[in-house]
C-alpha cells in the first residue's frame, strides 16, 4: 500500500483526532514501554558481558539512548501502522486510533527522538554504537514496518532482527565494535522471535485477517504455522545454551538454559498436537507467556553471573 493510499484510508477513517490534546501518558504509550523494557534489559546485559569497561555515567547515557531509540521506533511504527491498529482489537486503543494523538504528531515525536538518541550516543559514547543504533531504528521502521510487515509472511522472521540488535548495541557501547559472543546474544533473540509471535498470531489470527497483514497463520495456514513454531523452537534450544559452550557462561547457566529450552520445545510440541478448540487456544497462550519468561531467564542468568564475576 502506497503512502497516498494509506492517507486516503486514514482520511476515510472513523477516527476523530484531537491534535495537541494528547497527555504525557499517551506519548509514553507511543514508545511501547513493554517492548522498551525488554530492549533496555537485553542491551544492559550486552553491556555488562562485554570485555573492558565503561564509565558508569556513559553507561547510563548509552542505555538511555538505546531506550529512547527503541521508543522512537515504536512511535514511528504506530504512525505508519495507524490504519492497521484501528481495526485490530489488540491495538485499537493505542493513542493514534483512539484519536488522542495525530499521525503527524507521532511522526514528529518519533523522528525527533530518533535523531536525538543517535547523535547523543555517537557524541558521548562512540560513533560505532551510534551508527548501529541508527541502523536498528531504520531496520525496524523501514525494512520491517514499511516493507516486510505488509508484504510477506516471513515479516517476523526477518524483521525480528531489529529486536535482536540491542544487546549488540550495548556491547558496542563498551567495546566500539561487535564480536561472535555478542552475535550469539543477537541470535538467541532472533530465533526466539518467530515462535513467540506466531503463538500470538495463531491466537489472534482473525485480527490479522481483518487488517490484511500476511502473518504466517493467515497466508500459510495454522498447520504450517504449528510446524514452523516447533522447528524454530528446536533450533532455539541449543542456541540458548551456546554461551556456556563458548566459555562465557557457567555450567549452571548451561544446565538451566538447557532445561528451559526443553520446556520451550515441549510447549511448542503441545501446540503442534493440540489443533482444535479451547485446548489449542490455551496451548498458544501458554507458549507465548512462557517464551517471555524463557528469554528473561536466559539474560537474567547471564547478567547475574556477570555481576558475581565482577565482585
UniProtKB/TrEMBL annotation:
InterPro entries: Protohaem_IX_farnesylTrfase (IPR006369), UbiA_prenyltransferase (IPR000537), UbiA_prenylTrfase_CS (IPR030470), UbiA_sf (IPR044878). GO terms for biological process: heme O biosynthetic process. It is an enzyme of class 2 (transferase). Pathway: Porphyrin-containing compound metabolism; heme O biosynthesis; heme O from protoheme: step 1/1. It is found in: Cell membrane. Gene3D superfamilies: UbiA prenyltransferase. Its EC number is 2.5.1.141. One of its GO terms (molecular function) is protoheme IX farnesyltransferase activity. Pfam families: UbiA (PF01040). PROSITE patterns: UBIA (PS00943). The chain crosses the membrane at residues 35-54, 60-80, 101-121, 127-148, 180-203, 252-272, 284-303. GO terms for cellular component: plasma membrane. CDD domains: PT_UbiA_Cox10. Converts heme B (protoheme IX) to heme O by substitution of the vinyl group on carbon 2 of heme B porphyrin ring with a hydroxyethyl farnesyl side group. Belongs to the UbiA prenyltransferase family. Protoheme IX farnesyltransferase subfamily. This is Protoheme IX farnesyltransferase. The lineage of its organism: Bacteria, Pseudomonadati, Pseudomonadota, Alphaproteobacteria, Hyphomicrobiales. The gene is ctaB.
Amino acid at each position: 500500500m502506497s503512502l497516498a493510499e494509506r492517507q486516503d484510508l486514514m482520511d476515510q477513517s472513523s477516527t476523530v483526532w484531537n491534535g495537541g490534546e494528547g497527555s504525557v501518558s499517551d506519548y509514553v504509550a507511543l514508545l511501547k514501554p513493554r517492548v522498551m523494557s525488554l530492549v533496555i534489559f537485553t542491551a544492559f546485559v550486552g553491556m555488562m558481558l562485554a570485555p573492558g569497561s565503561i564509565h558508569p555515567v556513559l553507561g547510563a547515557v548509552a542505555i538511555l539512548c538505546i531506550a529512547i531509540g527503541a521508543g522512537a521506533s515504536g512511535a514511528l511504527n504506530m504512525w505508519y501502522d495507524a490504519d492497521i491498529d484501528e481495526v485490530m482489537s489488540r491495538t485499537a486503543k493505542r493513542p493514534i486510533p483512539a484519536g488522542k494523538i495525530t499521525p503527524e504528531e507521532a511522526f514528529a515525536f518519533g523522528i525527533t527522538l530518533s535523531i536525538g538518541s543517535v547523535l547523543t550516543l555517537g557524541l558521548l559514547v562512540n560513533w560505532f554504537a551510534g551508527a548501529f543504533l541508527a541502523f536498528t531504528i531504520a531496520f525496524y521502521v523501514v525494512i520491517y514496518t514499511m516493507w516486510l510487515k505488509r508484504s510477506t509472511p516471513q515479516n517476523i522472521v526477518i524483521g525480528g532482527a531489529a529486536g535482536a540488535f540491542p544487546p549488540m548495541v550495548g556491547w558496542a557501547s563498551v567495546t566500539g565494535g561487535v564480536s561472535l559472543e555478542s552475535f550469539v546474544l543477537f541470535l538467541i533473540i532472533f530465533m526466539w522471535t518467530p515462535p513467540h509471535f506466531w503463538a500470538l498470531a495463531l491466537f489472534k489470527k482473525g485480527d490479522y485477517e481483518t487488517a490484511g497483514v500476511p502473518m504466517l497463520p493467515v497466508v500459510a495456514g495454522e498447520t504450517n504455522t504449528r510446524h514452523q513454531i516447533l522447528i524454530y523452537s528446536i533450533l532455539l534450544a541449543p542456541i540458548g545454551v551456546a554461551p556456556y559452550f563458548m566459555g562465557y557462561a557457567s555450567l549452571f547457566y548451561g544446565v538451566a538454559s538447557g532445561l528451559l529450552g526443553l520446556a520451550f520445545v515441549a510447549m511448542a510440541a503441545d501446540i503442534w498436537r493440540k489443533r482444535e478448540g479451547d485446548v489449542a487456544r490455551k496451548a498458544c497462550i501458554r507458549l507465548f507467556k512462557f517464551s517471555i519468561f524463557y528469554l528473561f531467564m536466559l539474560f537474567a542468568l547471564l547478567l547475574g553471573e556477570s555481576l558475581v564475576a565482577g565482585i
